[in-house]
Fold this sequence. Notes:
Elements: H1 2-18, H2 21-50, E1 55-57, H3 63-74, E2 82-84, H4 87-145, H5 149-159, H6 163-174
Antiparallel strand pairs: 1-2
Amino acid sequence: MNRLCLFTARRLGEYQDSGLAPVAYLLSCIVLIFFTVLSFGSINYAIYKIDPSSFRAMAAPTPFLFCYYSFQRFLLQSAPQIVPIGFSAETALMLEELFAFFLVAIILSLMFSVKNQKTRETLDSTIVAIRAQGDRIESLIQERYQVDIAGAIRELRRARAGCLGIIIFFTSRIE
């Protein structure tokens, strides 16, 4: 059991570091859109089969035509081949448009989440680089002047002259 947990943890870490999460989010959204369109196409076709007067159609409606109609309505466009005129057809139309807005909200939140994650990763790497640079400068000061940073700050405070006052001002914020 321990090996299984370690294996799973390692695989999850590799997945997290791989950058495939946004691709998985995108595929999930595409599948959600596909099933939403297919579901509402089927719902609308079922409404038509139950009550043909719920829709006004230019030609004999087919399941594909209802899926096309559903796709067009999902994109908030009209489909002139089929027009809902009954209460149940119009209710299904409103629900489909509501689902479209929900899916757009999900997609936008995923985009912002991915963007925030990339920003966080960039900031983390920048912080690590700046800390490393600060450590290198500190070690150079210690080697060259044979004084530690705390001693150098004490000397600067004692001197308080010109630009050194600005340095003291900023270094007091670090402590």
